[in-house]
Design a protein that fits this description.
Layout lengths: L25 E12 L2 H9 L5 E5 L6 E2 L17 E3 L2 E10 L2 E8 L6 E6 L11 E6 L10 E6 L10 E2 L11 E12 L2 H14 L2 E5 L6 E2 L15 E5 L2 E10 L12 E8 L5 E6 L7 H4 L5 E6 L11 E6 L3
Parallel strand pairs: 7-9
Antiparallel strand pairs: 1-11, 2-3, 2-4, 4-10, 5-6, 5-8, 6-7, 8-9, 12-13, 12-14, 15-16, 15-18, 16-17, 18-19
Length: 324
């Protein structure tokens, strides 16, 4: 039997879609705010930065002094505590340039490990291993590592013998938690399959899928290979913007990355002419009545936004139920 030639994928519209590695791309962002529990020793270290003290911990077993103070020795695992103070001066053991400035490994006087921090007002050409530095303290301490604004080149020698036994400042409360906001910005190419889908949506409200040559199922969103048969898809097919609810859920919980304010209804919808489920929101109905009025097998139709199209499934505002 003569093999059927695959239908070439053609891009449509203004080029919203693209092959991997080609422009344009979709700008994405992953955000994850979270709270870190600092631990017994580090909480003291952070609190005492406001008093211009660098607190470390000495392991009774191996004798090493670690800064910041740790609950356990990194070398031998012995339990440690915030019990020694090191000098706010030291020497560089390594350094590198970053977009945010020079970062360095600094061996503080009295410590047996390096502290990573910024070197201020210096270029790489000004530095070498062994360069002496001194801490520059922040004008307004906030209970974080940045209470040390950074380290600046200084010929100042450590005053006195270090490390020294730590004496806690009166009425200082440990910093028990740190809030972080992890953010990752990235660019993602749509590729020829999602790109064609989004081009059609943007230019003509046209929803397209691809047909599997073996099982003849039409897959929406389109993809290069059939999920069931594992063969390459070939024919592009237009499907309707109406369909059938296969499952739905009323969302009451708030979570990170949510694009709608709860409560709202999400549903798995099989568009007329397709064989796969598309997840989208259900609207045009009181959410409080959704459990009673919605049911699997109910017909729905797309309600398109009046705004300028963005070339994504968000150009569909929601699907509204069709009541008999």
């Amino acid at each position: 039997m003569e093999a059927k030639a695959a239908t070439p994928v053609m891009m449509r519209g203004e080029g919203l879609g693209s092959a991997p590695g080609e422009n344009p791309t979709f700008a994405g962002r992953i955000e994850l705010p979270y709270t870190l529990t600092t631990g017994r020793a580090a909480s003291v270290f952070l609190a005492e930065l406001a008093n211009h003290k660098l607190v470390g911990s000495r392991c009774e077993k191996c004798g090493d002094v670690a800064v910041p103070a740790q609950d356990f020795c990194a070398a031998c695992g012995e339990t440690t505590a915030a019990d020694f103070e090191v000098a706010p001066t030291g020497a560089l053991t390594g350094f590198t340039a970053t977009p945010a400035g020079v970062l360095a490994m600094i061996r503080l006087d009295g410590a047996d490990c390096d502290l990573v921090h910024k070197v201020l007002d210096a270029e790489l050409a000004d530095l070498e291993v062994g360069t002496r530095v001194a801490a520059r303290w922040a004008a307004s301490p906030a209970g974080s590592m940045l209470d040390v604004e950074g380290f600046e080149v200084s010929d100042a020698a450590a005053a006195g013998e270090w490390p020294q036994p730590f004496e806690a400042t009166a009425d200082v409360e440990p910093v028990l938690e740190q809030s972080y906001d992890l953010r990752l910005d990235y660019d993602h190419a749509f590729g020829p399959y999602y790109g064609t889908l989004f081009d059609g949506i943007a230019t003509s409200r046209r929803i397209q899928g691809v047909r599997c040559p073996r099982c003849t199922c039409v897959l929406v969103p389109p993809r290069e290979y059939c999920d069931a048969c594992f063969v390459r898809t070939e024919e592009w097919v237009d499907v309707a913007d109406t369909g059938t609810i296969k499952a739905f859920s009323v969302i009451h919980m708030e979570f990170v990355g949510q694009v709608r304010e709860p409560p709202y209804v999400y549903a798995e919808i099989v568009l007329d002419g397709s064989a796969t489920r598309l997840i989208h929101s259900i609207g045009g109905i009181d959410v409080e009545e959704a459990k009673e009025r919605l049911h699997t097998g109910m017909k729905v139709r797309a309600v398109w936004k009046d705004a300028e199209p963005t070339g994504s499934l968000e150009d569909i505002d929601y699907f509204e139920p069709v009541f008999d």
